[in-house]
Amino acid sequence: MSRAPRAARVDLDRRDAGLVELMDDPDCDLRLLERTYGLFPLVNALVGGWGAIYRELLRPMMSDERPLRLLDLGSGGGDVARGLMRRARKDGLRLEIVAADPDARAHGWASEHPLPGVEYRCVSSGDLVTAGERFDVVVSNHVLHHLDDEARASVLDDSERLAERLVVHVDIRRARTAYLAYWIGSLPLAGRSFVRVDGLRSIRRSFRPDELRAVVPPRWRVVARRPFRLWLVHAPERAREEAA
After folding, report:
1. CATH number of the domain enclosing 75
2. How many domains does the chain have?
3. What burial letters (b/e) apply to 100-120, b meaning 16+ CB within 10 Å?
4. Nearest-CA neighbor of 142 among 166, 116, 106?
5. Could you read off the pLDDT of 139-189 as tens digits, one per residue?
6. Residue 139 belongs to domain spanning
7. Where are the alpha helices (DSSP H) in the chain?
């Protein structure tokens, strides 16, 4: 009897929070890390779902007069920030973005890919809170599954302090179909970057909707989206209106 493919034998019934992604190693191969940053635009364009976030949540808040000020936390190579800025420009809408990442390697790579309207900062969410910064919107992409319980609680608390109108943390929804699809689809990228190994580990580290609801404050809303997306949403503006 033939053995099942390795991908099919991975246990996805539980969240494997103990896995460490290669790019999180401070001593990882810088050449492969930079290739990984370079591939993120392709990966996030295919699976990130930022087009829907822009259309449904961000564009209705924007105008051609007052700029919407947005913070991208854990921005990595900055591709999400640049993608949002290009969408806003195409629609003739005003947007200002701060792309913040405390990792000097990510900040250095992103800074080599400037785009007017996007400001890169090598800071954490806590640094921005301490500095008294405020933004209309706070977003992140694939950050939540990297964080332990203490760090996640801190980032959510900082997000509430930083955002005036909306917070949207976007992450992967763990599912066997997602794992198998990525296992097959990322085969051409094997060995050329961390995209394949870390992507598979990210899926194993990620949450299911009920798991995420169990570890976030009740004022946060967990939204399951296709394909295999989770949006963790908090609307301070709406909360203030309901409390009035």
Report:
1. 3.40.50.150
2. 1
3. bbebebbbbbbeeeebebbeb
4. 106
5. 999 999 999 999 999 999 999 999 999 999 999 999 999 999 999 999 998
6. 32-238
7. 6-9, 30-47, 50-53, 79-90, 104-111, 125-130, 149-162, 176-185, 195-205, 209-213, 236-243
